[in-house]
Amino acid sequence: MDVLESTCDQYLGIKGKVVDETRNTLLIEQDGRVKTIPKDCCKFRFVEGSQTHIVSGKEIKFRPEDRIKKVR
Questions:
Q1: Percent of the chain with pLDDT over 90
Q2: Mean pLDDT along residues 21-33
Q3: In what order do the strands lie in the sheet with 2-6?
Q4: Is 68 strand, coil or helix?
Q5: Per the confidence metrics, is the pTM higher than 0.90?
Q6: What does DSSP assign to residue 32?
Q7: Residue 50 predicted with pLDDT over 90
Q8: Are 16 and 35 in contact (CB under 8 A)?
Q9: DSSP string spanning 1-68?
Q10: What is the pLDDT of residue 65?
Q11: Which domains does the chain have, with CATH numbers?
């Protein structure tokens, strides 16, 4: 996962593994440190095998357990 766009320059270019998630944030492990990234102001790129998914944080700004209900 990496941050493609952000209204806050400090989040641009952050790359790493998503280790946790809340309603408003993603927790990303980068270089052995965990960084908290707000969903609201960022656009993310997720890579799964050979597939790439670009997602606006506003589209996923809800609790992880509620995502299952929204996908249906």
A1: 78
A2: 94
A3: 2-6, 42-48, 51-56
A4: helix
A5: no
A6: T
A7: yes
A8: yes
A9: -EEEEESSGGGTT-B-EEEEE-SSEEEEEETTEEEEEESTTEEEEEEETTEEEEEEGGGG-S-HHHHH
A10: 77
A11: 2-71 (2.30.30.210)
